[in-house]
Amino acid sequence: MDVSATKVTLTLPDELLAVVDRYVAEHHGLTRSGLCADALRDWLRAQQEAEIIRYYETLSEEERAEDRSWAKASERSAASLWP
Predict the structure, then answer these.
(1) What is the pLDDT of residues 21-66, one digit of tens each?
(2) How many structural domains compose the chain?
(3) Which end of the chain is more exposed for a tag (fewer CB within 10 A), N or C?
(4) pTM attached to this predicted model
């Protein structure tokens, strides 16, 4: 997969960099950049999941009922397409 990237400089505490370097040394083919990119993707995914949870926690009972209705309609539609 061809992914464009931009080089950046990070300043990390020595003990954190030592952990990164140790992990990279133990996992052939992994680089500092790759590990940092993976960690940032994981962080972003966690942020997005937290945002979704916050959204659903703020729904009114009426909105929750509507959401359940749409989910049931989706299930029926999927079942008719993929029996």
Answers:
(1) 999 999 999 999 999 999 999 999 999 999 999 999 999 999 999 9
(2) 1
(3) N
(4) 0.72
